Amino acid sequence: MADIKQLQKDRQQLFTDLYEGRIPKRVPIMYNIGWEAAIQLAGHDLKQAQWDNSIVYDVYDKACSRLYGDLAPVAMTLRNPMHYQMLGAKAIIMSSSGQMQHPEIACLEPSEYDEFIQDPYKMMVDKLLPRLYKALDVSSGQKALTLGKAFKAYNDENVFYGATIGKIVEKYGYATIVTHGFGEAPFDFLADFLRSFSGINMDVRRMPDKVVEACEAITPHMIKLLVHMNPNPSILKKGFIPLHMAPYLNNKQFEKFYWPTFKKVVEAMVEAGQGVDLFVEHDWMRFIDYLADLPGRIRMRFEYGDPKIIKEKLQGKHIISGLYPLTLLKTATKEECIDKAKELIDILAPGGGYMFEFDKSALSMDDVNIDNLIAVTEYVRDHAIY
Amino acid sequence: MSKWDHLTKAVGELEEKKVMKILDKFISTNPTDKEVQEVINTCHKGMVMVGDIFEKGDYFVGDLIFSGELLAEAIDILKPALRNCDSIKKGKIVIGTVHGDLHDIGKNIFKSMAVAAGFEVYDIGIDQPVSAFVNKVKEVQPDIVGMSGVLTLALEAMKDTVDGLKEAGLRDDVKVIMGGNPVTKEACKYIGGDAYTTNAAEGVKMCQSWVG
Amino acid sequence: MNIKSEYYQTWEEYKEENPIVSDEGLKADKIQNYEELMYKFIFALFL
């Protein structure tokens, strides 16, 4: 018991040191497999298991007994189908393989920008929710009943999963990084569920001023979600922002539409002392100088990019992770996989400001060869120092 | 130097208002089928220009999405003016997003560019099981099968699809190209495809080289 | 940066419009937290 407690303390210290600007004893390992992959690893049926929270402990236990991580190496479900089903979701649906996904859908018409800008939250509740969620496109009475039920289901499931994961964390002595908030760059928020990827790319050309205004209208809401939603912001807590649309845009569009309001959100987080965790999806090499310019000490997980340039631009300031190609674990030999880890650590670790993480999380155990996954993470645990 | 160079340029430079003005003016002249087909071909040339600029690195995915929309709008204006819809196609392509994956933006960009390049494209949609690919290939006997996917789980689904074509005795009659974020050289080998790309314009060029 | 919406009220705004049954022992934070939870839930449906 004492050993587990000490293990947990040591692991927690790795992250505390890293986040507070010191060099930890070794390179911390931050990664997880997706909830769907963990279900598969535990031998449950993906289409059934997502509905049944009685299997949560077993799924975590089976994965954690095999995989190494300094944090629990299984992600909490991102898309619990329960409340999506109750709401008749059109934007988050289960594919034929059981994978919850977001097909392209827009709920805001180009002609409706002014109404949205006026009061985004009101329009989301009144008009946009019923367009994305069929079961809310009903009378106001029925809508209230359905929202009430879905809200209760959402909270009950979250509480249950959270409590179960807590037991696992104590059993295996994992470190924890509490999620303080989740939000998006205002431009991404406008794109993802409101205008869609295709729609927003039309809008930046056809109605650029409206796009700018809409992003500005969204900004205080993102700041609220990422800073003010929970008490006691802290650099040791996670304020998570996945970055989506920038690689789709040319440099002028990025400067005009994406960057200004995103920067405002990050600045507000840093000013409040809240840790910022960016998932820099796809390839941001065109914009690396912008990222380097952001204030604070931000955690940036890169999907693609040149590790040497990233290190050169961000070292001493921000914390780098990612860049290890997950799919290599499927197609390469064990030695090749470990060599890749060595290569990245040699470039990114010196001087600190680095933690080990794959470029993306496995959604299915078919994405990886589990022996390679274990070999790489154990290699990093046993050999990776700064 | 052709009389439609300014239209090619307007399409290539994604000048939506200019393109629509040129086409509206053209339609008002009550053109012959031959003239309409010439203008359709010009729009296609403009799309090739878009592909080239994208390959050079001066256009980005957002520009490709916009170009697809621009082409669709142009065709919407021009097609109704055609009395007879005959045109010679370069080749046939069956495309779809593989089972388990619901993403289609990349597939749709590839489709616009392939249509612009003169291919006849049969898009079977998203989250398509192996049987849907096999049945469509049996039905239309394409030159090429294109598989699209964005999630890492798409790779296994692509392998299933190629295996399905093999089992049905169809694999040797087609070229298989795969596209999407997770596709790599190693993945292509594992899946058993002929080519892979994360660049729609490059993918179309590969298809053109196959049909000669 | 504070948000402004017809559908969101701070505790002060709420107090202005609604009679408070009793000031003694009233847990304003607890009540206001439900406003925040609902706001977070609505946004979660768009994230």
UniProtKB/TrEMBL annotation, chain A:
InterPro entries registered for this protein in UniProt: UROD/MetE-like_sf (IPR038071), Uroporphyrinogen_deCOase (IPR000257)
One Gene Ontology molecular-function label: uroporphyrinogen decarboxylase activity
Name by which UniProt lists this protein: Uroporphyrinogen decarboxylase (URO-D)
Organism of derivation: Anaerovirgula multivorans
Superkingdom as given in the UniProt entry: Bacteria
GO BP term, pick one: porphyrin-containing compound biosynthetic process
Domain called Uroporphyrinogen decarboxylase (URO-D): residue spans: 168-381
Automatic annotation (TrEMBL), chain B:
Gene Ontology MF term list: cobalamin binding; metal ion binding; methionine synthase activity
GO cellular-component term (any): cytosol
Metal-binding as UniProt keyword: yes
UniProt domain B12-binding N-terminal: residue ranges: 1-90
Annotated ranges, domain B12-binding: 90-212
Alphabetized InterPro entries for the sequence: Cbl-bd_cap, Cobalamin-bd, Cobalamin-bd_sf, Met_Synthase/Corrinoid, Meth_synthase_dom
Assigned keywords, A-Z: Cobalt, Metal-binding
Superkingdom, taxonomy of origin: Bacteria
Pfam families from the UniProt entry: B12-binding, B12-binding_2
Gene Ontology terms describing biological process: homocysteine metabolic process; tetrahydrofolate metabolic process
Keyword Chaperone: no
Family: Belongs to the methylamine corrinoid protein family.
Name of the protein in question: Methanogenic corrinoid protein MtbC1
Lineage, highest ranks first: Bacteria, Bacillati, Bacillota, Clostridia, Peptostreptococcales
Automatic annotation (TrEMBL), chain C:
Entry superkingdom: Bacteria
Protein name, per record: Uncharacterized protein
